[in-house]
Design goal:
With 182 residues, the protein is mainly alpha-helical. Helix content is 59%, strand content 0%. It contains seven helices and no strands. It is flat, with a radius of gyration of 25 Å. 5% of the residues are buried. The model has no long low-confidence stretch (mean pLDDT 83).
């Protein structure tokens, strides 16, 4: 990547002071900056063929499917779920995590005399992880059910399907299926 000035059209160079700052192998500006890849998301067909597609889907839809295997994508999904919480839900969730930390600390302190065999500690960690995952799944499921409920109410009020889809983010076929099963 080369950087050119707008007015003089000259190539950007490192100053002598900048050259002192960087290691010897970084002698040009293009060695300072990372390579960039431009991904044309607008033409993405949402057909998942590899882990890059999983990330593009996640970043486009703010959603992670359970079968995604890309490194870090499930953790990103958990963070996306947290970002969608209301302030009250987030406070409640953080309070719950604090309680789990306190419980874990209690067991560590209680069994710190060397007699523990790791089984109890593993159970506490497993329970904590299960509760955290359960909360995240419950929030996701609750939001999905809320969208459906709102869509059906809007349909009952006589709004056009296109408007309901726009308001809820549901796909038209999915909305039509929900209405027919009502």
């Amino acid at each position: 990547t080369q950087f050119h000035g707008l007015h003089k059209r000259d190539t950007l160079q490192l100053s002598p002071r900048e050259k002192e700052h960087y290691p010897p192998h970084i002698d040009h500006v293009e060695n300072v900056f990372p390579e960039y890849y431009v991904l044309k998301i607008s033409s993405f067909d949402f057909k998942i063929k590899d882990t890059l597609d999983e990330w593009i889907y996640t970043l486009s839809k703010s959603e992670v499917k359970p079968d995604f295997k890309a490194k870090g994508v499930q953790m990103a999904g958990e963070q996306l779920n947290l970002l969608q919480l209301s302030k009250e839900e987030l406070v409640q969730y953080e309070r719950h995590l604090g309680s789990l930390r306190d419980t874990k600390s209690y067991f560590r302190t209680y069994y710190s005399d060397g007699r523990r065999d790791g089984l109890l500690e593993g159970r506490v960690e497993g329970i904590a992880q299960g509760i955290t995952q359960g909360i995240a799944q419950g929030i996701t499921q609750g939001k999905a059910e809320g969208k459906i409920e709102v869509a059906l109410k809007l349909h009952g009020l006589g709004l056009p399907l296109a408007e309901i889809c726009k308001a809820t983010g549901l796909k038209r076929k999915e909305l039509e299926r929900l209405i027919s099963n009502q």
